[in-house]
Amino acid sequence: MKKTIIIFLLITNTLLAFSSKDPHELIDSLQALLEEEMDVLERADIHYEIAQEMFLLKPENAYAHISEFIRIARAQDNDLYLYDGYIALSDFLSLMNDYQSSLEHLYKAYNIAEKQNDKSMVSYCHSRLSELFYFTDDLDKSIEHARLALAINYKEKDTIQLTYDFHNIAMWHLELDNYDSALYYLRKAITYYHHLGREPNPVFISHLGQTFSYMNEFDSALYYHFKALELDQKNSSEYEISIDENYIGNTYLRKKEYNKAIEYANASLQRATDMDLVDVMVFNYDLLLEAYEGKRDFEKALRFAQLRNDFSDTLRDKNKESIIQGLNARFNFNQQQQKLQVQEAENTLLRKQKTLLLFITILSLLLIIS
User: Fold this and answer.
1) Could you identify which of 108, 281, 301, 344 might form a hypothetical disulfide with 292, taking C-beta atoms 3.0 to 4.6 angstroms apart as the criterion?
2) Which has the higher per-residue pLDDT, 3 or 171?
3) C-beta separation of 175 from 138 below 8 A
């Protein structure tokens, strides 16, 4: 399973446009706004924006803001906000490698989309389900949802979503080693995206590089990987920069240029360590292990083999923690829902009591007048 290929696809789909402001500065300014008095939904919007920016820097820190966003959405009984919240929580859980919980929340978003009878929201959920089923090795369901999204978006003429549909189908073909078809759909995605008048999408470009790498066309692969890296550096997307560097290191490894492979693996590893991205760290340990084996430096190769094994255990523990977080989130949501139901029951009882009191008062007045 070529999971390294789309490790950051979900997060990039969430952030359809990049901020021109430095993410650290933007997060600081947004967090400062939370200290001010404002409308409750405006506060929810700020929590949502902070979560989106944190996905690019340190995804684990996004969880608290997503949870608060969903709490407000539930309290306000706002299905549209709740839809966005479930999508964001699904993204978070996917990044924590808890795909089952991620699917559960994505289905909650899908149910809201169906209830709203919004074709764009429904197709978006199909697109996300296609990606998640890819991660869980269920290619049949992955392509089924990709085609459902494609059919809706063609009918609705939703060009932006069509680009992601083409990308998902390309990844499905790449998984099956259908390289020509993968290139065809990736180029189609890039062309559609270009027609929107937007800056090139680094995800599509990077995956074009991955396809050429699997075809052993390494010069073409490096050309597209460096192009994607340049775009991500321009947008200060630290998470994606670390992935670009890992891809470049892997391409040099396949070319047997071990020193360059080690250079980019170390750069990627440093960023991943700073962001506490254990899964990306493990990918780089694998890369460094193979590179040092290629150089016949078995002492360093052994060190990275040990680190890989140690952090693989950490990754499994992290998965357990994320599952617990998911359970806690669901418990908190259920608790909030129960509170809202109790409050609604109390309000209903109060309305009945007021109606009864009014009836008795009017009856008493009529009796007095009589």
Assistant:
1) 301
2) 171
3) no
Amino acid letter, 242 = S
Residue 256 has φ and ψ, to the nearest 5°, of 65, 25
Does residue 12 surpass a pLDDT of 50? no
Query: In this structure, are residues 54 and 62 in contact, taking their beta carbons and an 8 Å threshold?
Result: yes
Q: How confident is the model at residue 18 (pLDDT cuts 50, 70, 90)?
A: very low
pLDDT at residue 279 in the model: 79
Cα torsion 251, 252, 256, 261: sign: negative
| pLDDT confidence of residue 216 | 94
Secondary structure of the chain as H, E, C letters? CCHHHHCCHHHHHHCCCCCCCCHHHHHHHHHHHCCCCCCHHHHHHHHHHHHHHHHHHCHHHHHHHHHHHHHHHHHCCCHHHHHHHHHHHHHHHHHCCCHHHHHHHHHHHHHHHHHHCCHHHHHHHHHHHHHHHHHCCCHHHHHHHHHHHHHHHHHHCCHHHHHHHHHHHHHHHHHCCCHHHHHHHHHHHHHHHHHCCCCCCHHHHHHHHHHHHHCCCHHHHHHHHHHHHHHHHHCCCHHHHHHHHHHHHHHHHHCCCHHHHHHHHHHHHHHHHHCCCHHHHHHHHHHHHHHHHHCCCHHHHHHHHHHHHHHHHHHHHHHHHHHHHHHHHHHHHHHHHHHHHHHHHHHHHHHHHHHHHHHHHHHHHHHHHC
> 181, 173 in Cβ contact below 8 A?
yes
Name every residue whose Cβ is closer than 8 Å to that of residue 205 and which is 6 or more positions away in sequence. Answer: 190, 224, 227, 228, 231
